Amino acid sequence: MYFVPAFSGLFAPYWQSSARGIIAGLTRFANKGHLARAALEATAYQTREVLEAMEMDSGVKLDVLRTDGGMVVNDLLMQFQADILDRNVIRPIIKETTALGAAYAAGLAVGFYKDLAELRENWGIDHTWKPFMDATKRERLYANWKKTVTRSFNWAE
Length: 157
What we know:
single chain; 157 residues; alpha+beta; two-stranded antiparallel ribbon; 5 helices; 5 strands
């Protein structure tokens, strides 16, 4: 099952304001657990799409993905992210880093921290996920995601 959360269009890398959210691949055996998993997997697929666009634009390939935010506590999602990206995914010890970054910037501005090296010493790894998914399965799942995304286009006029 695939869930495309295009509630007000799709942005990077599609830029389709007329896209709308859809659920595809339903069978008579689908249940709420399948839908929940499809919603989680959608974030991983979207991350892969944006990461591929960034790599194509910059010419720089990322070896690992460092994560943060509330969703990183979901181990299933983090493993699927590693699998669908085919690269390691790293969760930091401090999972909510947006506020921390603002605090670090303020601390640097007033001289509380002497330099960026001091801040880097505060960063640490909580967990690393390694990709285990077979390449054929990974590409089949991703191709089906891309097909589902195209089905979400042009719903709004």
